[in-house]
Amino acid sequence: MELQSPWTNSEKKAPAIFGFTLDSRRPRSSRRAAWLVPDRVRTPAPHQAITPDTRMSKRRGQEHEHQHRYHRDGAGKRSRREKHLYLVLDDWKKGFTIHKIDADSFDSDSDSGFDDDDTVAAAGHHLPGHLAVRLESPGPDVGMSFTSMGSKIFIVTDQRYRQTPSLIYDTETTGLAFGPRVPAELQCGFNTVIAAGGTLYAFSPPHFNKQNSYQVMSWAPSSSDDRTQYPSEEGWSWKSLPAPPPPFDRYEIITSYVVHPDRRTIFMTTSGWDSPGLQKSTYSFDTKDCVWRWYAWVLPFRGQGYYDSELDAWVGLHKDGYICSCRVAYDSGSATPIKLGLIELDWQTVEEKMFRKDRDRHLRASLTYMGRSKFCLVETVMREGANMDYYEDECVLHMTMFGLKYNHRGELRTTNHRSTRSYLVPKYKDFTAPVAFWM
Fold first, then answer.
1. Mean pLDDT computed over every residue of the chain
2. How far, in Å, are 31, 76, 255, 322, 380 from residue 282 at the CA level?
3. Which residues contact 32 (CB under 8 A, 6 or more apart)?
4. What share of the chain is helix, strand, coil (3-state, %, to 5)?
5. What is the pLDDT of residues 264-283, one digit of tens each?
6. Backbone dihedral angles phi then psi of residue 144, each to the nearest 5 degrees
7. What are the φ/ψ torsions at residue 62 (nearest 5 degrees)?
8. Which of 40, 164, 176, 192 is deepest in the core (most CB within 10 A)?
């Protein structure tokens, strides 16, 4: 593994926001499925100069180009590197590991529908692919935060102390670079980091009765102090947005979020920190104009949602273990607080539950978008009869890859090709959820 300089200038050639290009190309989309429900939430927002249909047409053209870029040429060579799943686990006693997994390893003879965890363990399944990187924690009880953008995985080694830097793992070069330290405003922790427009937006709950913190990290020229000595250098850096602070109160936390197809607006639904199951408010933030707005509806999923152009919908993981989709909202919201529940988004779930049958043994789960209506669900459960207070060698990891589509009645369904693999893995931190990145 190559350790790169924290001030590498390798991205200079890419014309983009803050000097870094986020590869937004997606696979080719097909005909939009029709929804069989009233079109209730479709009023264009004031800042949107084009219609949804115009935007869809433009995206399809971009996705068509992307599809050809990744086809094999006449000699059988790949014009671009294949994408892989990068799975983050706390399966190492000293820290975390990132595993690189080939999606093609999930074939039709996998253990789809398999629900006997002890039999899975006896089968001796091992994680496919190879170990990409191993990260040692600064301390025995210290967690790490992981997020991704483009081809890079951003790792905060210890967000409680400014002395520890962040790390940036480049999946294309396999290089590991030092990133900027976590700003003081985020030292109490941040539960949500969202990538939009080539920038990472981090939200933090209030610290010592202060307001919520809203910091962004982007590729930009170095700070004024560094510019005196290195005037032409660029790098990743944190800064506060010159905008009003998030309108959350002291006790609100973000429980679900998604980026609009316009790729500049972030939607988020909040709950009270002492009652995460009770939704409180929905907001949007326009990253271009730095404007907050309120909405009368809630996002139906938990955690991160994803926009899929083939379904023309947001897709996420419902709290009960079902995959749900909801129609993209185009209403302009309100510039002042508005009562929640006045409007409901059109949403539905698949028929089958994606979590394992025994809900009591469920630990954590996350959903990853793989493009073209394809997803990967990662779930950890306790082995049957295992000690619930001792996780080491007592957990089973289930990885399920599946596709989504609408049937002729407009109902959301999983495709026929659904593959699941299960692995016995150690788990050393009960507060960490497994997460996978597709890049």
1. 75
2. 30, 49, 10, 22, 29
3. 56, 310, 311, 312
4. 10, 40, 50
5. 999 999 888 777 778 888 99
6. -130, 155
7. -65, -40
8. 192
